[in-house]
Design brief:
355 residues, alpha+beta, 2 domains, 11 helices, 13 strands, flat, CRISPR-assoc_prot_CT1975
Length: 355
């Protein structure tokens, strides 16, 4: 029987007035949960922020981060030109994608395509060698995924054989309490306007809210290890955790300067199944003299303890960062916790088969 191993990340984070994830009308995204309106940040927004953090914070090597783009032909063309400057790289690149079954034209691929650096190089090598076996092109796209492809998966509607199952899942973040969006009415002054003109050069409004968010993500470590060795998988879990905990989507960031860090973090290693603890906030946290963060910590802690006595086993190992969750695990500084998490995952990956 294959061993099961999941790492769950639970984060409580207070965000001041902000609009970090907008809908099609420019309003902050919301959701109804527990019968009341909550602030919401989509999983896509936070995963994009995490992929940026992988690069900008050097959490992963450059070769470990893929490209999600319609410009795959250009990437392959550039690699072909580097390998064989004497060849017609543009023509070869287009033929290469045709051989791989990826629809493309002068504007690029039909849809965004997630591709690793290793896959780009493999396709270019086949092109330079003028390989005529289309199976080899498919094989080049079916192996050697980047770390972020292994984590977040790849879906190719035109050819499911090129799909990769995601080893990680990221939930939509929601506020632990009810919210009501507000509007900021602003004016802008024209620096070059006439002295006798006291009017504004521009008027407008920006919709925003503020919230204490519950954020959740999980990593299927065994699925991740299918593409990486045990040591690398443990390192990636650490990088994923750091990116999830420290990143922030950039919507309206220049307007609101809302870059905060969490109030508390709870990380568990589970050997049965992932467990999202959003049920702690199905009854919206009520405003109090302590604000929302402290009662949210109490609600999360109480709900987890109750759940472990009824429906779910207690985690194999737990870690916390920050104050207020010490009943679940002793608190540690973030970097110390991440080091301990990496080591614990590495130890757990010793011997995947169990009796």
């Amino acid at each position: 029987m294959k061993k099961r191993l999941y790492v769950d990340f639970h984060v409580l984070q207070t965000v001041p007035p902000s609009c970090i994830n907008r809908d099609d009308t420019g309003s902050p995204k919301t959701a109804i949960y527990g019968g009341v309106t909550r602030a919401r940040v989509s999983s896509q927004a936070w995963k994009h922020a995490m992929r940026q953090a992988f690069v900008e914070e050097s959490l992963l090597d450059e070769e470990d981060v893929g490209k999600r783009t319609k410009k795959v032909t250009e990437l392959v063309e550039k690699e072909i030109a580097a390998l064989a400057p004497e060849k017609d790289a543009a023509k070869l690149a287009k033929k290469t994608l045709d051989n791989a079954g990826i629809k493309n034209d002068e504007k690029g691929t039909k849809a965004l395509f997630f591709i690793s650096q290793a896959q780009i190089k493999a396709l270019a090598q086949l092109a330079v060698e003028e390989c005529a076996d289309k199976k080899e092109y498919k094989k080049a796209l079916s192996t050697a995924p980047s770390v972020d492809i292994a984590l977040f998966g790849r879906m190719v509607a035109d050819d499911p054989s090129l799909n990769f199952d995601a080893a990680a899942q990221v939930a939509h973040s929601i506020s632990t309490h009810a919210v009501q969006n507000e509007y900021d009415y602003f004016t802008a002054v024209d620096d070059c306007q006439a002295e006798d003109n006291a009017g504004a050069g521009h008027l407008g409004t920006v919709e925003y809210n503020s919230a204490t968010l519950y954020r959740y993500a999980t990593v299927n470590v065994m699925e991740l290890e299918r593409h990486l060795d045990a040591k690398k998988a443990a390192e990636v879990v650490r990088s994923f955790g750091e990116a999830f905990i420290r990143s922030m989507p950039t919507g309206k960031q220049n307007t609101f300067a809302n870059r905060t860090l969490p109030d508390a973090v709870y990380v568990t290693i589970r050997e049965d199944q992932p467990v999202n603890l959003c049920g702690a906030f199905e009854r919206a946290v009520r405003k109090s003299a302590e604000g929302y963060a402290e009662p949210s910590k109490s609600a999360l802690q109480a709900y987890a303890q109750q759940l472990y006595q009824s429906f779910a086993e207690a985690p194999a190992k737990s870690f916390t960062v920050g104050t207020g969750l010490e009943a679940l695990a002793p608190a540690q500084p973030l970097n110390t916790m991440l080091d301990a998490l990496e080591e614990a995952v590495k130890e757990n990956l010793t011997g995947n088969e169990v009796e």
